Amino acid sequence: MSTTTNTAQANSKGSTYRQMLIDGKWCDAISGKRLAVINPATEEVIGEVAYGGREETKRAIESAAKAMTTWMKLTAWDRAKVLKKTAELMRERADDLAKTLTMEQGKPFPEARGEIMHSADTFEWFAEEGKRAYGQVIPNSVAGKRHMTIKHPIGVVAAIGPWNFPVTLQVRKIAPALAVGCTIVCKPASQTPLSLIKIFDCLLDAGLPPGVANFVIGPAREVADEFIKNHTVRKISFTGSTEVGKELMRAAADQVKRLSLELGGHAPFIVFPDADPEVVAKAAVLGKFRNNGQVCISPSRFFVHKDIHKKFTEVAVESARNLKLGNGLEAGIEIGPMFEKKAMDNTIDLVADATAKGSTLLTGGNRSSRFDKGYFFEPTVLCNVSPDAKLLTEEPFAPVMPILDFSKMDEVIAAANNTRYGLAAYVFTNDLSVAWKMAEGIEAGIIGINDPVPATPQCPFGGMKESGLGRELAHEGLEAYLETKYVSFMLRG
Ligand code: NAP
Q1: Ligand 1: nearest atom to the Cα of 296
Q2: Domain range holding 159?
Q3: Residue 339 domain-assigned (yes or no)
Q4: Which of 62, 141, 203, 364 is the most exposed place for a label (fewest CB within 10 A)?
Q5: Residue 462: inside a domain, yes or no?
């Protein structure tokens, strides 16, 4: 494996070439293979990354194990200094990081900048929370005995992340793992490695010792198979589709490997008749079309009370039509391209399936004809959607808003829960009793009451049912990287 200490090199086409990070050194793939990264707004190659495989993954795991022997012995205060410095560097470099994120993922620059700032906050929050990995002293029932628990870092962690929030969703793993003394090997989604590599630059510049955080990229099954089979890896933290999550869960059983799973969602967005339909419809459109609906907590089934359904629908259609679509690097753009052609083609199929089953298309429904290049899809609103439309039965991950109606609370709770997913839900009402009953009745790990953007570092994030296992963020997200050791003492005399 050839290595170099350069953090970035320009290749012959002028785009950037970046390497994997193993044991504090930037490395080419042993095979010399590279993978091109495409800008979904222009379909142009914007960079290349070294594309390794099992052997590089094995070396990264070894280096993480070696580094953990000293990293775990540092005090939480010393580890926190590195994490807080990382947050500071991310904020200083936010414009550059956000530009890279927009170019590889497609989301508009202000949203990309928001992702970077949220991720910096996550580093800072876990730097502090790492100091609160408390055990307990437990009262004894037998005279002369004393009991306590202490917390122990779980070991080497393997992190696999998706392309829709390539920075935030890895930072939710890196920050708590490092804060408690674990070390980590990260594998990003193949199509969006560049912004995460720049976060690794920040970690190194903040003084992170070699091997504490490693970055590998290669064929997903091969890299994941090494994570699964290698006994040194004690935990796999995965964010991605429910199907891949289930595969990992089955495979991890062999070594009883610890798992955190952040999987798919199909969030209901429920509007009661006392809510202002105009205000809520505008909020609904912003929430729905953010990142083109390619968000695990994106609202994707809109249940609007029949008394306000008409007004809500009119405003939603008008707002969706007025959204400014274009290259996310241009000022004023509200919606970028979809992430890849496959995602856009899938959206076309979802709309065709819904209309074939009787849905009324109110706006959108097609690839935008205004662009020669890029995966731009018109924000789409439908009503009269049949319950068996794929849009309602499968996670859509698309800029499509199906508006349904309801008249009774029990009926809407049953409809909202009629899915294998249970990640997020949104409820709009001014009635405290309705809000409380909905929070109790809805099967979802995250519930926004009049709040379309609930995620924040200090609150738990994760799903019920097939949306996942465990929670990220908050103290629960720290505990996910800790084992509890119970220690019992028999005193003398
Ligand atoms: P995905 O296809 O499951 O891929 C996610 C990651 O897993 C990528 O790094 C991918 O690598 C890797 N991967 C693919 N096949 C694998 C396999 N057989 N074994 C191990 N790893 C494998 O998901 P995606 O399309 O990137 O992301 C969208 C999904 O993620 C949606 O379902 C969404 O709801 C979910 N998501 C959940 C959350 C949450 O917090 N709950 C947040 C965001 C997204 P390659 O890129 O190299 O194929």
Answers
A1: 34
A2: 2-263+468-485
A3: yes
A4: 141
A5: no
Per residue in 452-479, pLDDT (tens digit) is 999 999 999 999 999 999 999 999 999 9
Q: What's the CA-to-centroid distance between 311 and ligand 1, angstroms?
A: 37
Q: Which of 27, 296, 395, 466 is catalytic?
A: 296
The secondary structure of the chain, three-state, reads CCEECCCCEECCCCCEEECEEECCEEECCCCCCEEEEECCCCCCEEEEEECCCHHHHHHHHHHHHHHHHHHCCCCHHHHHHHHHHHHHHHHHCHHHHHHHHHHHHCCCHHHHHHHHHHHHHHHHHHHHHHHHCCCEEECCCCCCEEEEEEEEECCEEEEECCCCCCCHHHHHHHHHHHHCCCEEEEECCCCCCHHHHHHHHHHHHCCCCCCCEEECCCCHHHHHHHHHHCCCEEEEEEECCHHHHHHHHHHHHHHCCEEEEECCCCEEEEECCCCCHHHHHHHHHHHHHHHHHCCCCCEEEEEEECCCHHHHHHHHHHHHHHCCECCCCCCCCCECCCCCHHHHHHHHHHHHHHHHCCCEEEECCCECCCCCCCCCECCEEEECCCCCCHHHHCCCCCCEEEEEEECCHHHHHHHHHCCCEECEEEEECCCHHHHHHHHHHCCCCEEEECCCCCCCCCCCECCEECCEECCECHHHHHHCCEEEEEEEEECCC
259 and 271 fall within a common domain? no
CA of 262 to the centre of ligand 1 (A): 9
Tell me whether residue 479 is one of the annotated catalytic residues: no
Query: Is 88 assigned a catalytic role?
Result: no
Atom of ligand 1 lying closest to residue 261 CA: 41
Give the residue, by CA position, lying nearest to ligand 1 atom 22: 220
Claim to verify: residue 180 and residue 71 sit in the same structural domain: yes
Q: Is the CB of 466 under 6 A from ligand 1?
A: no
Residues 175 and 253 grouped into a single domain: yes
Looking at the domain assignment, is residue 493 inside a domain?
no
Pair 33, 143 in one domain: yes
- The tally of domains found in the chain comes to 2
**238, 306: one domain:** no
* Residue bearing the CA closest to ligand 1, atom 15: 220
For the segment 208-222, the average pLDDT, to the nearest whole number, is: 98
Atom 17 of ligand 1, nearest CA residue: 221
Distance (Å) from CA 408 to ligand 1 centroid = 36
Digit-coded pLDDT (tens) for 37-92 = 999 999 999 999 999 999 999 999 999 999 999 999 999 999 999 999 999 999 99
